[in-house]
User: Which sequence fits this backbone?
């Protein structure tokens, strides 16, 4: 089973790299909630494109601090930058 997972990861990262090259993009920007889905996408992007070509963005809106801490943990784990754009409206 592990070989099947590695094969899938290899195919996905190959597709990502080809797609980004085809579009002539210099990299990707990924929304980072700190959850499993974000972490998975960030891991695949970092593997396919290299950490220097991935930027993550957290966009809290009345979020608890733990959400931002989780997003930071994910970006730190994959050594990619995290930008924070607070969407909470100041009243």
Assistant:
């Amino acid at each position: 089973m592990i070989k099947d997972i590695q094969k899938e990861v290899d195919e996905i990262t190959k597709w990502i790299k080809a797609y980004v090259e085809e579009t002539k993009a210099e990299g990707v920007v990924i929304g980072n909630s700190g959850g499993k889905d974000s972490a998975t996408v960030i891991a695949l992007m970092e593997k396919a494109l290299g950490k220097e070509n991935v930027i993550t963005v957290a966009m809290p809106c009345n979020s608890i601090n733990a959400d931002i801490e989780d997003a930071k943990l994910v970006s730190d784990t994959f050594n990619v930058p995290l930008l924070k754009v607070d969407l909470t409206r100041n009243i």
